[in-house]
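User: I'm writing a short report section on ligand binding and want a predicted complex to refer to. Could you take this sequence and iron/sulfur cluster and write out the structure as tokens? A short remark afterwards would be nice.
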Amino acid sequence: MNDRRGSITVDRNTCVVCGACAAACPAEALVVEGLSLVIVPERCRPCGIAALVCPTGALACPGGK
Ligand code: SF4
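Assistant: Sure. The structure tokens for the complex follow:
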């Protein structure tokens, strides 16, 4: 199941909620809350860094390179 918020898409079946994207995002658009990854769409630029650091390929960020 994909969850699209703003410009970021996260595949909830692939995400292991490791927090790597939350740590890397310069805009703090990704936040780990409990056992869930929360996306704050209004903060996303989008730069694409989160998608690059995701170890499972769960994130797609169309604006990123
Ligand atoms: S880096 Fe990938 S696997 Fe880790 S919390 Fe973010 S989306 Fe999920």
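A remark for your report: The longest strand covers residues 2-5. The pocket of iron/sulfur cluster is lined by residues 10, 15-21, 37, 54, 56, 58-59 (CB under 6 Å).
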